[in-house]
Amino acid sequence: MGTAAVATAKEVFDLLHHDLLAIEREFGRDAVSTVAAITEITGYLRESGGKRLRPSLLLLACRSLGYSGSAMHRLGAVVEMVHTATLVHDDIIDGAELRRGRPSPNTTWGNSRCVLAGDWLYMQAFRVALNERNFRVLELLIGLTQVMVEGELLQAEKLGRPVSESEYNELIYRKTACLFEVSMRLGAVLAGADRLTEECLAEYGHALGLAFQVVDDVLDLTSEEAILGKPVASDLREGKATLALVHALAHATAEEGEAILQVLADGAFTQFRYQDVLTILDRHGSIDFAMDVARKHAERARRSLDCLPESEYKRALLWVPDFVVNREK
């Protein structure tokens, strides 16, 4: 892929600047409730920022197919509300204390209120989507929510235990990639694209989402708290076997494998140090393996865009996989 065919970060920001501002306004209006606690929690989450990557994908899908109606701003806000609701619930399930470098909402408002605020965000997302009077949009959002909830339950069943690579792929599809995929599908639906084009864009979202989560899991092991905005090795402390660990377990000695399995089972570094695990991963090239997998997913995402006509928005979509793979947080 030649560099001339791919947009730069500045170009992408400039392309979407006004659209993203419109989405922020929609999100701000939609996230207000007559119950003060809900408005406070959703306001706190909005202020913490985030990449707004999922609504950006919806915008780029729409724009690349020639659609520029205001529905893409409304559904962009819907996508971000669904994503925000998942973060609220994830923090409660994981017992997280930090989110994007700030105290997670559950540490301030408590688990009960935050569960209900997350539920409210889901319902508000559907309420806004219902106003589009588009059955396909509702079908996609309902299916998405079911897949994500099932994914949380599947992950809970596998905590503290090793998983196969195929099980890991299923978990990260349900956890992350399904929302990327649906964001692209929604853009195609709004633009009135044919089924083949929708499937191509869905493939892009699927592959990109897998790459995103693989990199996320690597950063959890290799980055620093000041960069991540949360403690490093959170996944290990929660008993989650991510791709680098799956690879290491397949190549480790019996003693090394026992150490990894003990950390997963304990959900803590009580018998083995964090550095001990990193040494094992480094010895078997497991971090490099995971990053190679992420790069392959990213390349698959780029290849899936052959169905799109050439445009500045397609160039932006071609840039996103590079951003996903090379980001620091």
Task: Please describe what this structure looks like.
The chain is about 75% helix and about 0% strand. It is an all-alpha fold and about 325 residues long. It has a single domain (about 5-320), classed as Farnesyl Diphosphate Synthase (Orthogonal Bundle), CATH 1.10.600.10. The model has no long low-confidence stretch (mean pLDDT about 95).
A few lines on this structure:
This protein has 329 residues and is mostly helical. The protein has helices at residues 9-30, 36-47, 53-64, 71-94, 105-109, 111-130, 135-158, 165-190, 195-222, 225-228, 234-237, 243-251, 254-266, 274-283, 286-303, 312-326; strands spanning 98-99, 102-103.
Write the layout of secondary structure elements.
Blueprint: H1 9-30, H2 36-47, H3 53-64, H4 71-94, E1 98-99, E2 102-103, H5 105-109, H6 111-130, H7 135-158, H8 165-190, H9 195-222, H10 225-228, H11 234-237, H12 243-251, H13 254-266, H14 274-283, H15 286-303, H16 312-326
| Total count of domains | 1
User: How many strands appear in the DSSP assignment?
Assistant: 2
CATH architecture title: Orthogonal Bundle
Q: Please write the CATH class name.
A: Mainly Alpha
Order of helices and strands, N to C?
HHHHEEHHHHHHHHHHHH
N- to C-terminal distance: 25 Å
Overall residue-averaged pLDDT value: 94
Corresponding CATH superfamily: Farnesyl Diphosphate Synthase
